[in-house]
Specification:
5 helices, alpha+beta
Amino acid sequence: MHSITRLSGDDFPGRVDDLADVLAEVVAEGASVGFLSPFERSAAAAWWHARHRAVADGSLAVWVCRGPEGVVGTVGLALERKPNGRHRGEVVKLLVRPGARGRGLGRALLGTAEQAATRAGVTLLMLDTVTGSPAERLYHSAGWTRFGVVPDYASDPAGLLEDCSFFYKRLV
């Protein structure tokens, strides 16, 4: 059985090692989530440590998915702080370890972020992902609308440019 837990500002530092392990593993497996190879675990930990202030001030919510094998996934919800955009948020860093995929954990993490956004008064969510990826299929099946594709938007960890699909979802 897996459980999904939101990390508080106080809890977050104690989970950075787990989050770093997940991030480093998915990048090593080729996930295009903002980093190039070689990507050391220490760099992953530093990236997560830099998010602590946002988690503490509530502009970034982070959840972890734990199972018998430890932390196997995470998702973030970034809330817009500009006065004219407080109705929107962005789903960021939806990551599931390769060995834990195919169990519905990505869908559960996504649903958790969507529900939290609704409770926070967010009515519009956005995200982006590699075009043609399993994540893109997940978002389509979860009711998200693709509104565009940008060619050669970002590179994968090996440095190869990939197209990126941008999605939104209205929460009512």
